[in-house]
């Protein structure tokens, strides 16, 4: 089946103009009766996914096949195949808005039945994380990698030289920016060229000032939320920081993804950077000495008079496996998902530097490559009253570009508060 | 040239059959998808459900979309800048490389290397070179200031134009080199006898003789300019704001980031139509399509 | 014909050499540096310590299979182009009918179709024919999108064959097939080699079609491998750039040998 010969026959048929008769047949759907296809974002974490597929195949009659799609265009590719016979049985996603269109199209299997049979599929995960794959009250995903909260990183040496300690409050941070600026250091590195790092600042300020509720209301379709007093205050507060030159002047030409902004911090040209927890391994790869002794981190500072809990975090809650309705082997898919809270899974994820979000993770933290860092993060996530999924993942995919554009223009001063509010109100919600 | 063929000649002319395989193949894998794009442009489709016809909705939305309108202007601007900057450089370079001196041959081997790099590689390399903190701008602050090249509209468009010159000049210079080598030496000798210097020879012999080459090269530049995509994706992501959101990139954003394939298809069609009109205009004005051979073209 | 040296041209060519050379220098030099050296020293400094590690890492990351796949795709695309374009160009240059004129205009129109514009329907055409995730499914559309430029180039080259040569063969009562074989093909060798080079470059550097139309490791091409590399290793610029250099080497070698032919072929492009 699906051999080269068949392909060549098909082409010949095509060239002869008989293509209509030569459909794809059923050769495409899940080849035979014994496999489920697992589609995953292709990157370094794949070795754990491979390992688990192997483990699964040792005992299961239905065999799992792992397909990976490289990088940033995963979502695009997924969208193209998901409603065709080429669709996988189980696939990687970011929860939230990323699966919403699929749920609306009725393509995904609600996991209620699985959970009824094995409550562990829900109870063995941290609730704040599990919840970000709940759509319209039904669970659609099981966490399958590590959590990535956003932290405020800093260069210890630069702070020490300036006589500063890591900021606990927003006022500390603003004061630190002034001191650093006077010393000729860019206070905060920002990869504005990538656009999404800029968004992280808004996510935290909205949480600290208005609490997590405002964004949830906005996401639910309440456009007035953006025009509220709290929203304006968050914007003004951030704008003051930008205007004070806290991010320098050339952040639009700097990217995180090509190593630009991490290098600024590692070399002491900048003091702070707000970034996902993967920042630690980024620095470890690019600037090992700095990562070992010079890199510090804290949660995002508290803000006096704000409604948000200073323990709230934002970021990528985790990645998830979701199951398609059309799968021929739901039991096998369920069995595969159950591996996601196994000890083997937790250990393997920790070994490659990911922080899994099972309740059992705490027992294995010593196995992590950097136990201290993993522990801090785990405590942070576990203690967080709210873990807000990144805005651009929480909204439907069609909102991403206009959102990024508005954020960048707000930082550049080309949209004022009103303009930004209008742009956010115009975003498509569910 | 008379159209009446000499007796017997007709038999040696190839029939339409010769064009058929290519035509059918092209129909299958380029025009059929294009036709489907036309259909999709009248539907609302997120790529997963069934496309739903929505009449002219996409088109009216586009007409009122300021980003779309801006993107068309940006695209035309970048295309015009591309033609205006690349043409002189590649003519000069091509004519220069057409000389048979040994050093020219060696140097031009280096000059044409960018031709071999994929657009992705070109963009990645230039990002590294232009990095405001670690690249060239940091060494030449008197020229670049704070190095915020991609932070302003002018800067970002300038960078895209410059990288375009770097990336595409080699191909066009090669074309001009070929064209220049084909110019009969007698013309230069005659001009020299008339006392024409190097500059006048260039203006009065080389340029007119390169007319057709210039037309071809400009068509390729226009089409390339209108469909600029990779460099925008990697260098500016359409920013700052939407300042470098060219039409091809906007289509990509709508279709593959926002999963609005209906609007995406409509944008794609706008692009195809504009590019076609411009190249047809150039072809028509120059009589390129009617010209069958050098001799017949005279 | 010996003239005084052209100072202005010499100066201009030097400026251009710097402009072309600088990024190439950055590209090359970065591949011999460690990642931390690159990130502390910036892209312009020569390596503190030369290393081949980047290349070794790339090679151990399964570049071999990708390489073979790319080679297959390239060979396939070139084969199709060489099969269908020469007869087409011949027909365009010599046929009398209106139909061929329209075909030529059709291909000129094809110049203006960006591949991104048709990628969605393309996916359906390819998956409906059962070619999804087969290299042939990448080869066919890639070749189709090479046709317009190749046709333009080869038509230009064939126009340079003087009418008297055709007439001479007509006198002998030669069939179109014989004219094609004995006159047209040999005399447009330059054009043929340029379309070969063009098609090969397109196939070798192609990204969008393989990205959308394949998914397995067994059908992965080099450009996708590069992309993989970028996402897997995050911001490892030296590793990425050495992968770029590796992927470019074969093309560079071909280019060095085929340059003369390429230049000759492009002579025909302008109809001059």
From TrEMBL, chain A:
PROSITE patterns, per database record: PROKAR_LIPOPROTEIN (PS51257)
Superkingdom to which the source organism belongs: Bacteria
Signal peptide start-end: 1-20
Alphabetized UniProt keyword annotations: Signal
Cross-referenced InterPro entries: Bact_solute-bd_prot1 (IPR050490), SBP (IPR006059)
Residue runs in coiled coils: none
Pfam families per UniProt: SBP_bac_1 (PF01547)
DNA-binding in keyword set: no
Name of the protein in its database record: Sugar-binding protein
Source organism of the structure: Kitasatospora aureofaciens
UniProtKB/TrEMBL annotation, chain B:
Keywords: Cell membrane, Membrane, Transmembrane, Transmembrane helix, Transport
One protein family per Pfam: BPD_transp_1
Transmembrane region(s): 16-42, 72-97, 109-129, 149-168, 214-235, 261-283
Domain ABC transmembrane type-1: 72-282
Topology in the lipid bilayer: Multi-pass membrane protein
Domain of life according to the entry: Bacteria
One GO location term (cellular component): plasma membrane
Protein location: Cell membrane
Gene Ontology terms: biological process: transmembrane transport
Protein family (similarity comment): Belongs to the binding-protein-dependent transport system permease family.
Alphabetical list of PANTHER family matching this protein: ABC TRANSPORTER PERMEASE PROTEIN (PTHR30193), INNER MEMBRANE ABC TRANSPORTER PERMEASE PROTEIN YCJO (PTHR30193:SF37)
Name by which UniProt lists this protein: ABC transporter
From TrEMBL, chain C:
UniProt keyword annotation of Cell membrane present: yes
Any one Gene Ontology cellular component term annotated for this protein: plasma membrane
Topology class, membrane: Multi-pass membrane protein
Domain named ABC transmembrane type-1: residues: 67-258
Keyword terms of this UniProt record: Cell membrane, Membrane, Transmembrane, Transmembrane helix, Transport
InterPro entries: MetI-like (IPR000515), MetI-like_sf (IPR035906)
Record localization: Cell membrane
Transmembrane segments: 7-30, 67-90, 102-126, 138-158, 237-258
BP term (GO), one: transmembrane transport
Xref: CDD domains: TM_PBP2
Family designation: Belongs to the binding-protein-dependent transport system permease family.
This protein's name: ABC transporter permease
């Amino acid at each position: 089946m699906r051999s080269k010969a068949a392909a060549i026959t098909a082409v010949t048929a095509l060239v002869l103009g008989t293509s209509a008769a030569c459909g794809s047949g059923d050769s495409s759907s899940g080849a035979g009766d014994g496999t489920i296809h697992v589609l995953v974002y292709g990157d370094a974490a794949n070795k754990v996914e491979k390992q688990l597929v192997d483990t699964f195949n040792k005992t299961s009659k239905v065999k799992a096949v792992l397909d990976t799609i490289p990088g940033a265009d995963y979502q695009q590719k997924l969208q193209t195949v998901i409603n065709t016979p080429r669709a996988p049985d189980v696939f990687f996603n970011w929860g939230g808005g990323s699966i919403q269109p699929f749920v609306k199209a009725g393509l995904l299997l609600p996991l209620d039945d699985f959970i009824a049979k094995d409550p562990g599929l829900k109870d063995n995960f941290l609730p704040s994380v599990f919840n970000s794959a709940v759509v319209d009250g039904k669970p659609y995903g099981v966490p399958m990698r590590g959590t990535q909260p956003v932290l405020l990183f800093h260069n210890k040496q630069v702070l020490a030289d300036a006589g500063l300690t890591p900021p606990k409050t927003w006022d500390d941070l603003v004061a630190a920016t002034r001191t650093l600026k006077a010393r000729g250091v860019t206070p905060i590195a920002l990869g504005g060229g990538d656009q999404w790092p800029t968004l992280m600042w808004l996510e935290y300020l909205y949480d600290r000032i208005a609490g997590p509720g405002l964004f949830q209301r906005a996401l639910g379709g309440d456009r007035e939320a953006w025009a509220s007093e709290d929203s304006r205050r968050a914007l003004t507060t951030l704008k003051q920081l930008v205007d004070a030159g806290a991010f320098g002047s050339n952040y639009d030409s700097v990217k995180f993804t090509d190593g630009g902004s991490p290098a600024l911090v590692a070399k002491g040209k900048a003091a702070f950077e707000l970034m996902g927890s993967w920042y630690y391994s980024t620095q470890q790869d690019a600037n090992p000495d700095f990562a070992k002794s010079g890199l510090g981190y804290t949660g995002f500072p508290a803000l006096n008079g704000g409604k948000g809990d200073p323990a709230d975090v934002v970021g990528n809650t985790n990645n998830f496996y979701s199951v398609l309705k059309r799968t021929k082997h739901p039991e096998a898919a369920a069995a595969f998902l159950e591996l996601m809270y196994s000890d083997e899974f937790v250990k393997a994820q920790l070994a490659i530097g990911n922080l899994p979000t099972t309740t059992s993770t705490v027992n294995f933290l010593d196995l992590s490559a950097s136990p201290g860092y993993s522990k801090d993060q785990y405590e942070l996530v576990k203690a967080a009253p709210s873990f807000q999924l990144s805005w651009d993942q929480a909204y439907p995919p069609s909102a991403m570009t206009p959102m990024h554009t508005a954020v960048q223009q707000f930082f550049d001063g080309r949209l004022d508060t009103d303009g930004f509010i209008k742009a956010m109100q115009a975003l498509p919600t569910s | 040239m008379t159209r009446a063929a000499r007796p017997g000649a007709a038999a040696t002319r190839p029939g339409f059959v010769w064009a058929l395989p290519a035509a059918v193949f092209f129909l299958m894998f380029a025009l059929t998808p294009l036709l489907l794009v036309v259909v999709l442009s009248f539907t609302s489709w997120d790529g997963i459900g069934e496309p739903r016809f929505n009449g002219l909705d996409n088109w009216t939305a586009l007409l009122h979309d300021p980003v779309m309108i801006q993107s068309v202007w940006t695209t035309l601007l970048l295309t015009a800048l591309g033609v205006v900057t690349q043409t002189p450089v590649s003519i000069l370079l091509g004519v220069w490389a057409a000389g048979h001196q040994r050093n020219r041959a060696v140097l031009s081997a280096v000059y044409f290397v960018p031709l071999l790099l994929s657009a992705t590689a070109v963009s990645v390399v230039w990002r590294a070179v232009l990095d405001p903190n670690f690249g060239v701008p940091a060494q030449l602050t008197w020229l670049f200031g704070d190095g915020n090249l991609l932070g302003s509209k002018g800067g970002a468009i300038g960078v895209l134009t410059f990288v375009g010159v770097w990336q595409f000049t080699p191909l066009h210079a090669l074309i001009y080199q070929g064209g220049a080598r084909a110019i009969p030496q007698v013309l230069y000798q005659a001009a020299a006898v008339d006392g024409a210097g190097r500059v006048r020879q260039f203006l009065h012999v080389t340029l007119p003789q390169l007319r057709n080459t210039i037309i071809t090269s400009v068509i390729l530049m226009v089409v390339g300019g209108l469909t600029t995509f990779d460099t925008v994706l990697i260098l500016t992501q359409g920013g700052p704001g939407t300042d470098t959101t060219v039409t091809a990139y906007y289509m990509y954003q709508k279709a593959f980031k926002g999963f609005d394939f209906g609007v995406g298809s409509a944008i794609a069609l706008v692009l195809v139509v504009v590019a076609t009109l411009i190249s047809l205009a150039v072809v028509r004005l120059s009589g390129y399509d009617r010209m069958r051979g050098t001799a017949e073209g005279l | 014909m010996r003239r005084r040296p052209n100072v202005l041209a010499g100066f201009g060519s030097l400026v251009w050499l710097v402009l072309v050379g600088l990024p190439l220098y950055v590209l090359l030099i970065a591949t011999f540096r460690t990642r931390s050296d690159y990130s502390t020293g910036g892209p312009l400094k020569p390596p503190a310590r030369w290393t081949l590690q980047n290349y070794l890492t790339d090679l151990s990351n399964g570049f071999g299979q990708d390489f073979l796949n790319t080679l297959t795709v390239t060979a396939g695309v070139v084969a199709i182009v060489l099969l269908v374009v020469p007869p087409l160009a011949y027909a365009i240059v010599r046929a009398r009918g209106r139909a061929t004129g329209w075909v030529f205009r059709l291909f000129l129109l094809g110049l203006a179709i960006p591949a991104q514009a048709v990628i969605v329907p393309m996916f359906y055409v390819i998956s409906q024919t059962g070619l999804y995730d087969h290299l042939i499914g990448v080869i066919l559309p890639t070749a189709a999108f090479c046709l317009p430029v190749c046709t333009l180039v080869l038509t230009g080259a064939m126009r340079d064959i003087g009418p008297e040569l055709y007439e001479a063969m007509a006198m002998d009562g030669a069939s179109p097939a014989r004219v094609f074989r004995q006159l047209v093909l040999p005399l447009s060798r330059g054009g043929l080699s340029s379309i070969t080079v063009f098609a090969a470059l397109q196939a070798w550097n192609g990204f969008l079609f393989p990205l959308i139309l394949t998914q397995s490791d067994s059908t992965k091409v080099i450009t996708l491998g590069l992309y993989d590399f970028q996402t897997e290793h995050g911001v490892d610029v030296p590793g990425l750039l050495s992968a770029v250099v590796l992927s470019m080497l074969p093309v560079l070698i071909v280019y060095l040998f085929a340059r003369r032919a390429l230049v000759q072929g492009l002579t025909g492009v302008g109809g001059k």
